[in-house]
Amino acid sequence: MIARVRVLDSPRVTPTVRGVKFEKPAGFVFAPVQFCGLELSTEEGPVEYPMSLACSPTKPYLEFGARVSESPWKRAFALLKPGDEAEVDGAYGHFVLDEASPAVLVAGGIGITPLKGMAEYAADRQLPIDVRLVYSSRDEEEMAYRAELEDLSRNNARFRVFHTLTRPSQDSHWTGRRGRIDADLLAEASRGLESPAYYVCGAPGLVQETYRLLMELGVGADRVHYEVFRGYG
Ligand SMILES: Cc1cc2nc3c(=O)[nH]c(=O)nc-3n(C[C@H](O)[C@H](O)[C@H](O)COP(=O)(O)OP(=O)(O)OC[C@H]3O[C@@H](n4cnc5c(N)ncnc54)[C@H](O)[C@@H]3O)c2cc1C
User: Which ligand 1 atom minimizes the distance to the CA of 64?
Assistant: First the structure.
């Protein structure tokens, strides 16, 4: 479906991530959580980028989150304000939560977008599956949707988040895990789950490395789903 949509809200998510919520057009359906083409008017004319939806289909709006940069599309995205219009084309893709299997979601940076949507979906639908999120951020300020994820853990006893920070600032008081996602963290997040499905999302390097670690841990390739944010390194 291709539809014109109007901006409802455009919050700053982190110092480098902007969020935008759009009206949801009547009849727009998507599976948890596919991506869309999002076409914006830029200084170079209309440009479309693939963007994962950053919310559950149970929500009454369409949400996106993007790491800002100086490219024309990103500049246009960062300038969106309530009332502005864009065009969505979608939804597409096979990166979709299996509602019958326990899930381990693995996010690197802005790769959190569809995984936050999956966690919202599991909570809103009260799915009878455990959902664990492993989320690697650069530092505390760059943990996108931190409050939303905390709310989800409070409201859904079957949802847990495992944060790790790769580059916390020198004066950080962070007492949680530091360093990249490794086999120990993936094993800890998977503990007690029977044949979980894995959903990995982020830049190509993170997805490749996580896939390699999961193979080393003996996870079957058929249980690993991934969405690669091509365009990031
Ligand atoms: C399925 C899918 C879902 C995605 N979801 C998200 C998301 O939720 N959030 C997010 O931040 N990013 C997402 N991306 C990546 C996004 O589409 C961009 O590629 C990425 O954000 C980098 O864009 P940039 O303009 O900052 O890159 P820069 O490195 O600044 O780009 C430099 C130039 O490369 C070109 N370019 C880069 N990316 C694209 C592109 N995708 N299409 C056309 N030209 C491009 C442009 O000409 C741009 O001027 C997703 C990608 C895919 C494939």
Answer: 8
